[in-house]
Structures are given as structure tokens and as C-alpha cells.
Automatic annotation (TrEMBL):
Main localization of the protein described in the UniProt heading: membrane
Organism, as annotated: Microbacterium protaetiae
Alphabetical list of NCBIfam families matching this protein: efflux_EmrB
Key word Transport present: yes
Coiled coil: none
Any single GO CC term annotated in Swiss-Prot or TrEMBL for this entry: plasma membrane
Domain Major facilitator superfamily (MFS) profile: 13-464
Name by which UniProt lists this protein: DHA2 family efflux MFS transporter permease subunit
SUPFAM superfamilies associated with the record: MFS general substrate transporter
Location in the cell: Cell membrane
Residue spans crossing the bilayer: 12-31, 51-68, 80-98, 104-125, 137-160, 166-189, 201-221, 227-247, 268-287, 299-320, 332-348, 360-383, 404-424, 436-460
Length: 479
């Protein structure tokens, strides 16, 4: 239809796709604020509580590569529509959940369908805006929405939990689903990759089982690192991931071409992305618990009180971009994690009767600045030296690293939290002990960020010239 290719229709398509990206990103954080009320309502344990977050991040990260392949091969609009319907159904199921197990299953299904939605939306944006100034504007809008999604999720989660019910943090997605489906019918056109396309089903199954086993093994560390179940699942996860590497090295059309991850600089960027994900997803969850459970903030104020992190990141990003062109990525990727580590160590000193403005706020501002110094160069290095036909896999790998890192990090932090409580999972009445346990998770997160700085020191050798080259590679991919 001519209307589908007209300039005005393209901008309507951008609105639809940007809203899709918003809902995918905000669903990673919108439930965080609601968790204390959901836990009280459904009566699930602290271990199940962390799986409400982990299930989404794990399914999203583990299936993202496959979701991108399905969109390319089966049809991007078709994948988008199926993903949107499935995401809406999973959200409705979660909003009506009557137990912790049902809520966890719903979150996993949300993540699985989000893994179809996210790459399909990005691919549709690429074909809708093939070149020129309009394309740069479209990607700037899309990227801004993605960057603001976490902040929107925190505030929206607080508003819905405070003035409606925690279930609306899931049911609100139905509004986005309706807009997405109507918008797809009116403004989106079908497209798919040409040539002979084969799915790497063995690779997809093995990597999903491997990552799932690894994350579940880390979650079992709460009952003991020496437990046969813990060791068994961790070992199985490692063996399955080794098998995945062998499969990818032998199949004609691998899910993840190994050349994407074996480059020294790019591989280092993926590792840093995983550590950053563990901190952003894991430690910030325990921050919201401290704000609500220990400091007694209502859900809305807890969401607002968490905003300094994403806001400081958005403020720091333009400065980091200018520094990147002058000094290259390596100093930023060494300094940024160390700044975040310092903020986390400051945050670990929280007490049950401490003031938010003194014990929490300064750390959040500094953390956000450090994260800005991390994410800006990572976006460049993730596609450094990547051939155009591998750019999609590289981008998906970076997103997967973030989500899987968050899943593993959250499992590790939960184990540390449980150990700090001395195994007293429901010691919610002892605010001082809870604050101390949350502080222990922040110390662990700080150690992780120091490790990220070491990774950058050893592996990331990108110079100013290489960053410029990386930007060209990105343009080749998206144009």
C-alpha cells in the first residue's frame, strides 16, 4: 500500500516501534518496585522473589539470538505480531497470577516473547528508514527511548503500585500491546533476509539449556556452594556451553559466529557488559528493597528515589561521548567501573536509621555517572571490526551479555544476601540486619566492577582511530 511507504507513515511507524522498545526495556525494572507488595500478597519466598526478575532477564538474554534469526528468516512483521500477542498474553497471565510460581512462569514467558519483539522492532526500523538524515533521527529517538526505559519503569511501577495495585505493573502492558498490533497493521511492512536461511536449532537448544543450567546453579548457591545440586548444575552449564561452541564452529549457518566473540577487544567489551548488567540488574534490585523495606518509603517514592542513577547516566553520556573521541575507550572503561565500585562501597555503609540524602543519594549520582562512562564506549566496541553481515549477531550478543550477566549477578547477590542473614530468609523485622545484608551485596557488586576495570586494562586496546572505525561499521550495518 502506498501509505505504508509515505514519509508521514514512516514516522507513525517510528512511534509504534519506539513504544515497543520502551515496553521491552521498562519491563526489566517496572516489577522491581512492586516486588515487596507482590511477595506479601502471594506469600512467596525471597528465593522466588529474585526469580521474578531473573526469569525475565534469563529468557530474554538466552533467546535473543534465536529471536533475531526468526525475525530475519520467518518475517520481521510476522515475528513482531506474534511476539506482541505472546507478550500481552504472558503479561495478562502474570497480572492474574495466584502464586509465586505462576508469576515466575509469566515473567519467563514475557522474556521469551520480548526476545522476538526486540530484534524484530530494530530490524523493522532499519528497513523503514534505510538511509539519510531521517534514519539518523529515527535511531536517535529509538535509542533515547531505550535509554529512558529503565527510569520510566521505576516511576511507572511506583505509581501503579502506590495508587492501583502491583498487578497493574504487568497488566499495563496490554495497552502497549493494543497500540503495537494496531500500529503494525497500519504502518509496518513485511520484510525478511534473502538467500538460503537455515536455523541453527541445535545451537539454540544447547545454549538455552546451558545458560539456564548455569544461572540455576548460581541460584542454588543460596543453599550452599558445596551442594551436589549446585555443583551439578554449574558443571552441566559449563559443559553445555562448551558443546555450544563446538556446534557453532561446525555448522554452516551458526546462531553465533565465533568470530564475533573471539576478537580480543570485542570479547572484552562483552565481558564488561555482563558485569555491568549484573550490577545494574542485581544490586539496584536490592536498593529498591532497602528503600521500601528498611527506610519505609512508599512504592512511588522508592521509584523516584531510584531515578538519580539513570538521570545521572543520561547527563554523563554526552560528556563521555566527547571524551571517547579524544582519548579512546580504554581509559573510560577502566575509570568508569572504578567510579561505580567506589559508589557501591559508599552505598554498602547503609544503616537502618540512615538518611537517604546522606547514605544513598550521593552514591546513586556517582554510580550513574560511572555507568555513563561505561555504556558509551561499550556501544562502540560491541561492533568494533564487525563485518556488516555479523553486526546483528554482535548487537544481540551485547544485549544477551547484559541480561545473562544480570541473571547470574542477581543469583550470586541473593546467595550473599542469604548468607549475610544467616539463613533467616524471612528476618524482615530486623531492619539493621537487613541493611547489613543489602550492604554485603553492594560490596560484592563493587568487587565485580573492579574486575570489569581489570578486564578493560588487559583486553581492551581500542584507540581513538579504532573507535572511529567502529562507528563506520555501525553505519554500514544500519544503513
Amino acid at each position: 500500500m502506498p501509505a505504508r511507504t509515505s514519509p508521514s507513515t514512516r514516522w507513525w511507524a517510528l512511534i509504534v516501534l519506539a513504544l515497543t522498545q520502551l515496553v521491552v526495556v521498562l519491563d526489566g525494572t517496572i516489577v522491581n518496585i512492586a516486588l515487596p507488595q507482590a511477595q506479601a500478597d502471594l506469600g512467596f519466598s525471597d528465593g522466588q522473589r529474585q526469580w521474578v526478575v531473573t526469569a525475565y532477564a534469563l529468557a530474554f538474554g538466552a533467546l535473543l539470538l534465536l529471536g533475531g534469526r526468526i525475525a530475519d528468516y520467518w518475517g520481521r512483521k510476522r515475528t513482531y505480531v506474534v511476539g506482541m500477542i505472546g507478550f500481552g498474553a504472558a503479561s495478562a497471565f502474570g497480572g492474574l497470577a495466584q502464586s509465586g510460581a505462576e508469576l515466575i512462569i509469566a515473567r519467563g514467558l514475557q522474556g521469551a516473547f520480548a526476545a522476538m519483539l526486540a530484534p524484530a522492532a530494530l530490524a523493522l526500523l532499519t528497513v523503514t528508514f534505510p538511509s539519510g538524515r531521517d534514519r539518523n533521527v529515527a535511531f536517535a529517538v529509538f535509542g533515547t527511548v531505550a535509554g529512558a526505559g529503565a527510569a520510566v519503569g521505576l516511576v511507572l511501577g511506583g505509581v501503579l503500585t502506590e495508587f492501583a495495585d502491583w498487578r497493574w505493573c504487568l497488566l499495563v502492558n496490554l495497552f502497549f500491546v493494543v497500540v503495537g498490533l494496531v500500529g503494525a497493521a497500519l504502518f509496518l511492512s513485511e520484510s525478511r533476509a534473502g538467500g538460503e536461511n537455515r536455523y541453527d536449532w541445535p545451537g539454540a537448544v544447547v545454549v538455552t539449556l546451558g545458560l539456564g543450567s548455569l544461572v540455576y546453579g548460581f541460584s542454588l548457591a543460596e543453599i550452599g556452594w558445596g551442594s551436589p545440586w549446585t555443583i551439578g548444575f554449574l558443571a552441566a552449564g559449563v559443559l553445555l556451553l562448551v558443546l555450544f561452541v563446538w556446534i557453532e564452529a561446525t555448522v554452516a549457518q551458526p546462531l553465533l559466529p565465533l568470530r564475533v566473540v573471539t576478537d580480543r577487544v570485542r570479547g572484552g567489551a562483552f565481558l564488561i557488559q555482563a558485569v555491568a548488567g549484573s550490577v545494574m540488574i542485581g544490586s539496584t534490585l536490592y536498593l529498591t528493597f532497602h528503600l521500601q523495606i528498611v527506610l519505609g518509603m512508599p512504592a512511588l517514592w522508592a521509584g523516584i528515589a531510584s531515578l538519580p542513577i539513570p538521570l545521572a547516566t543520561m547527563v554523563a553520556a554526552p560528556f563521555a561521548t566527547r571524551m571517547l573521541s579524544k582519548i579512546g575507550p580504554r581509559p573510560l572503561l577502566i575509570g568508569g567501573p572504578l567510579i561505580v565500585a567506589a559508589s557501591l562501597l559508599y552505598l554498602s555503609r547503609i544503616t537502618a536509621d540512615g538518611a537517604y540524602a546522606v547514605e544513598v543519594l550521593p552514591a546513586l549520582i556517582v554510580m550513574g555517572v560511572g555507568m555513563g562512562f561505561i555504556f558509551v564506549p561499550l556501544q562502540n566496541l560491541a561492533l568494533y571490526g564487525v563485518a556488516p553481515h555479523d553486526a546483528g549477531a554482535a548487537s544481540a550478543t551485547a544485549n544477551s551479555a547484559m541480561q545473562i550477566g544480570g541473571s547470574i549477578g542477581l543469583s550470586v547477590f541473593t546467595a550473599i544476601y542469604a548468607a549475610a542473614l544467616g539463613g533467616m530468609e524471612h528476618a524482615v523485622g530486623d531492619a539493621a540486619q537487613l541493611a547489613s545484608a543489602y550492604g554485603a551485596t553492594f560490596v560484592a557488586a563493587a568487587i565485580g566492577m573492579v574486575l570489569a576495570a581489570v578486564i578493560a586494562l588487559v583486553l581492551v586496546r581500542g584507540t581513538k582511530a579504532q573507535v572511529i572505525s567502529s562507528e563506520k561499521d555501525v553505519l554500514v550495518h544500519v544503513e
